[in-house]
Amino acid sequence: MAPPTAAPAAVPGDPAVEGRDLADVLRLAPGEPVPSMGQVIARLRAEGIRTGLAAFNPPGTSPPLVGLAVPEDFPLPEGYVRHHQVTDDGQPIEPILMFSPDYVFYDAQGRPLPIPPDRVVPPQWAPPGLPLRWITIPPPRAATPPPGR
């Protein structure tokens, strides 16, 4: 039987590190301003934490796509999908019309048509009958400090 060894130091990903209280990781002093979500994610990642809140990209790193609004009751032809999004502060955004990643469109000669890299459908390729109206991204809500701050 091998002699017992000392327990290894906590490393990122280890439950001993991941289980720490968020306030301990952020090292907030009484009266210090509440950090933004981007600052929270940056501090967590600097500590080697990549789970929980730190698994998400900071707000603003993936802005919503703007495209044609597609009503929920509009029947989509094959090859089109509704893309649902939310703002960084959780506000729902109207679904936009996108090309399905599982479908290939062909021209009259049977050649595949090039699809925009972001897969957002331009007005000239919208299905017949779809009202052509761009969505509007709602403005950010004012941040509110957590209770007790």
Structure commentary:
With 149 residues, this protein is mostly loops. It has two domains: 15-55, no CATH class; 63-136, no CATH class. The chain is 13% helix and 10% strand. It has three helices and two strands; from the N terminus they run αααββ. It has helices at 15-18, 22-26, 37-46, and strands at residues 80-86, 92-99. The chain has a two-stranded antiparallel sheet with strand order 1-2. A hairpin with a 5-residue loop joins strand 1 and strand 2.
Write the layout of secondary structure elements.
Layout: H1 15-18, H2 22-26, H3 37-46, E1 80-86, E2 92-99
Please summarize what this structure is.
The chain has two domains: 15-55, no CATH class; 63-136, no CATH class.
